[in-house]
């Protein structure tokens, strides 16, 4: 796993073998950021990365110069790996919060410009995540919610879903608040 672009471009991150996360492939990550760079000025946005896993997406946002990225991961081993990686690389515009994502969403009232979620593809209730995020206070006006998921679920009929992309087994569904 590596950071694709930005200040920390090319940095290799080697998660220990006891991490059970599935990092987003470099190919899918690069494609996602090619979309985002055409819609957002990274130097002016704040990002929330839910189900952070290895931290791959959060590192990428931080490397590309976002104002701040908050990463949420409930697994202690994963969150400690992310914390250590942030320190080792010297990333100072990101932090890790060890918390269950669903509890975090209920308690958080700070809105973000981009909310990204990469839950386990087989997570029970994955289809409810867009509504949970869209009904929360996590999204600024014109913010995007991006859900990474497997091919077994589709959000194309969801009223707030405005785009869907797939890169092999990696699917991204894009949502925004419906006015």
Give a quick precis of the structure.
The protein is built from five helices and seven strands. The protein has 179 residues and is of the alpha/beta class. It has a seven-stranded mixed β-sheet with strand order 3-2-1-4-5-7-6.
Please give a handful of descriptors for the protein shown.
179 residues, alpha/beta, globular
How is this structure best described in words?
With 179 residues, the protein is α/β, with parallel strands linked by helices. 26% of the residues lie in helices and 26% in strands.
Protein topology:
Layout (H helix, E strand, L loop, with lengths): L25 H11 L9 E5 L5 H8 L4 E6 L2 H14 L4 E5 L2 H7 L4 E6 L11 H6 L4 E11 L11 E7 L2 E6 L4
- Given the structure, what is the number of helices? 5
Which parts are unreliable, with pLDDT below 50 for 5 consecutive residues or more? Answer: none
Give me the secondary-structure category. Answer: alpha/beta
Order of SSEs, N→C?
Answer: HEHEHEHEHEEE
Main β-sheet description: 7 strands, mixed
Strand order of the main beta sheet, please?
A: 3-2-1-4-5-7-6
Distance between the termini: 38 Å
What proportion of the residues form beta strands (DSSP E)?
25-35%
The share of residues in helices is 25-40%
- Tally the beta strands: 7
* Rounded Rg: 15 Å
- Can you give the mean pLDDT? 94
Multimeric status of the protein: single chain
Envelope shape: globular
